Amino acid sequence: MPLDARTRQGPGAVFRPHALPGCRRRARTPSADRCRERPRDPGACTLKVGADLVDIVTTNPATAASSITLTLDSTFIRSCEDGQRHLEVRLGNVETSDGGRQVFAAVTKTDTSVEALIQRGLKEVGQTTDTELTAFTDGCSGLRSILVNAGIAKPPGLDWFHIAMRLQHAEKTAGTLPADTPERENARAVIIAEVDRLHWRIWNGKAKDAKITLERIRQVMPVFRGDGDRKRDPSSRRLWTALREIDRYLTSQSAWLVNYAERHRAGLRVGTALTEGTANFLVNRRMNKSQQMRWSRRGADLLLQVRCAGFNGKLDSSFGQLFQAVDPASELAMAA
After folding, report:
1. What is the rounded distance in angstroms from the CA atom of residue 78 to the CA atom of residue 293?
2. Digit-coded pLDDT (tens) for 197-256
3. How many CB atoms lie within 10 A of CB 5?
4. 297-311 vs 42-52: helix crossing angle, rounded to 10
């Protein structure tokens, strides 16, 4: 029977050995401590291995990497600690142009330094002084500070994934605009074309022209005035809200925009989409979405170190088979 089913907890959560069948409460003794050092259950074993992985020695690859792409993002898991509903997890990927990859993750406010994990991952894939390093984040200032503290001086790019999600929402909303009159039908066609043009401009590094698109849309929006008389939240209002959000996002992040089309044609990463897949298989699938468990800060962090080590090939076959590596790209495709 799986550990989760027996204890309603899990590796990394608040572990209660007395909740296992056949176990009884008893006072702590030296012999009991020795037993805990040789745990029979996978939960305690995972925590011990996770603690040992903190000081793992970095191994340098035989060949140096010519270019490395680093992606950094964050997600949340449920907390079992008093006064906290969620714990923030910062995670990412370090990937070389020839396919080498390392993943890393850490819960905030623990002894595990995400900056140290980033530096370790870069060394593991072969970073040298001549390596071209490109980083992507979702624009959060906290994540950018982490990269600076990790010694990455080059400003990170704004990832395409979060831009694309905002554009997709605007495109879908534009398609729901009413076309009950010839004027509205023509205006909707203009808006759909302009939103598509906005997509093209941002993708090709011409985001500074986004206000041209927004102004053209604003000029034809008055034909939908009065649509709110029939609906409490008309599509025209939702579209304009979405477009203003895109404008604010691009304005605040303009310094970190790149030419995504150019990078894509060169076969390079354009954002944190791979990290979104990493979050799915590394955190959400095991610790959040399907299991519906709550975690202690330390326990969740140690479990993440084990799962990352399993993916990175740092565990031997006898233990690593419990944490089989899953390709983040395949997870992202399944989620899409």
Report:
1. 7
2. 999 999 998 888 888 888 999 999 999 887 655 556 788 889 999 999 999 998 898 889
3. 8
4. 80
How far is the C-alpha of 195 from the C-alpha of 210, rounded, in Å? Answer: 10
Count the neighbouring beta carbons within 10 Å of the beta carbon of residue 224: 21
Give the DSSP H/E element, type plus range, for residue 91: strand 86-96
Q: d(Cα 259, Cα 271) in Å, to the nearest integer?
A: 11
Q: How is residue 304 written in tokens?
A: 């993440």
CA-to-CA distance for 56 and 58, rounded, in angstroms? 6
- What pTM was computed for the model? 0.72
The parts of the chain modelled with pLDDT lower than 70 are 1-46, 54-58, 62, 227-232, 274-275, 284-292, 316-336
CB 78 within 8 A of CB 85: yes
Q: Which three-class secondary structure state does DSSP give residue 134?
A: strand
* Encoded tokens for 128: 């040298």
Cα–Cα distance measured from residue 47 to residue 60, given in angstroms and rounded to the nearest whole number:
26
> In whole angstroms, what is the distance from residue 10 CA to residue 43 CA?
6
pLDDT for res 203: 94
Q: Compute the distance between CA of residue 218 and CA of residue 153 in angstroms, rounded to an integer.
A: 40
Give which of 297, 326, 316, 328 is closest to 92, Cα–Cα: 328
How many helices and strands in the chain, by DSSP H and E? 14, 5
